[in-house]
Amino acid sequence: MPTFEDYEGQVPAWCPGCGNFQILSTIKHALVELGIEPCQVLVVSGIGQAGKLPHYIKCHTFNGLHGRTLPVATAAKLANHSLHVIAVAGDGDCYGEGGNHFLHAIRRNPNISLFVHNNQVYGLTKGQASPTTAEGTYTTIQPYGVLQEPMNPLAIAISQNCSFVARGFAGDQEFLKELMKAAITHRGFALLDILQPCVTFNKINTFKWYRDRIYRLGDDYDPSDRIKAFEKALEWGDKIPNGIFYKCKRDVFEDRVPAIQEKPLVRQKFSLEEAKREIERFY
After folding, report:
1. Which Pfam families match (predicted)?
2. C-alpha 89: how far from chain center
3. What integer is the mean pLDDT of 244-250?
4. What are the residue ranges spanned by the domains of the chain?
5. d(CA 183, CA 114)
6. What CA–CA distances, in Å, run from 223 to 191, 220, 275?
7. pLDDT at position 240, please?
8. Is 137 exposed, middle or buried (CB count within 10 Å of its CB: 0-12, 13-18, 19+)?
9. Residue 124 has what pLDDT?
């Protein structure tokens, strides 16, 4: 069985008190409790404070381009679908630069987990507004306040019939761990949006601000009810629901690709001569 120490990577270089620390620790605990060995995991990221996470966990990792986390994660899953693939991204990286990839990952439904560190700012580049920043918020480059309404990633995901939609809070690690475990074991594309305070650049959405508002969806809540999921996804302000909003069964992308049904692509024989012949067909 793996241990927490098996997943220990480099010492994180985040601001003291950053919610990313809790997310990193919770990912490790979730993997350990699921009995998943580091050699069975691939963590993929883009750019940003969340994008640094692969450096701080010991397993297979890939730190790619800004906004391109999901194409890499999907490709890796297609190449070796025996791996547990976890994509980590910030709200700017995923919902901004990577917004198009976010939509098409939902549509394809690859068997990967997406953990979004949603701190409502671009933390790496000194606190500019992200797609989830509230309208009217003053930032370093929005001295008159943010002019646009924030996007609602959960509502968007539910509208596209994402097979798993959930929200957690970095300040509630025990519940967040259970949500992560549910996302990792779910067959299909699993979105887990994590409310993660930025203690340096976001002085509004603090740990206390969230604790005063967050509540868990109860045992009587039915995540198969898409209409109710929409209602809960639109709820924000004095009360903020956390938990699994929506879950459904859909065909998994890898199961529809004929070339990888017998064995993962990485375990298939590769002929350089055959590859050359295929390439020459295009000339």
Report:
1. PFO_beta_C, TPP_enzyme_C
2. 6
3. 98
4. 4-280
5. 8
6. 14, 10, 46
7. 98
8. middle
9. 83
The per-residue pLDDT for 123 is 85
**What is the per-residue pLDDT across 175-195, written as a single tens digit (0 to 9) for each?**
999 999 999 999 999 999 999
Share of the chain above pLDDT 90, in %: 86
Residue 4: its pLDDT value, please?
96
For residues 257-282, one letter each, b for 16 or more C-beta atoms within 10 angstroms of the residue's C-beta and e for the rest, the string is eeebeeeeeeeeeeeeeeeeeeeeee
Tell me how far apart the alpha carbons of residues 201 and 221 are, in angstroms, rounded to a whole number.
35
CB-based contact 108:61 (threshold 8 Å)? no
pLDDT score of 262 more than 90: no
- The whole-number pLDDT of residue 139 equals 87
Residue in the block written with tokens 């919610």: 19
As given in the structure block, the two tokens for residue 85 are 């693939």
Token pair for residue 29? Answer: 């605990």
The predicted structure's pLDDT at residue 263: 86
What letter would DSSP give residue 7? G
Classify strands 164-169 and 240-247 as parallel, antiparallel or unpaired.
antiparallel
Q: Tokens for 165?
A: 């939609």
Cα dihedral across residues 105, 107, 110, 115: positive or negative: positive
Instruction: Tell me what percent of the chain is helix, strand and coil, each rounded to the nearest 5.
Output: 40, 20, 45
Which phi and psi (to 5°) does residue 122 adopt? Answer: -90, 95
Beta strands in 196-268 (DSSP E): 214-216, 240-247
Q: Name residue 118's beta-bridge partners.
A: 195
Q: Does position 171 have pLDDT exceeding 90, yes or no?
A: yes
Which superfamily does CATH assign the domain made up of 4-280 to? Thiamin diphosphate (ThDP)-binding fold, Pyr/PP domains (3.40.50.970)
Tokens of 216: 């868990």
Within a 13 Å sphere around the CA of 180, how many CA atoms are in the beta-carbon half? 30
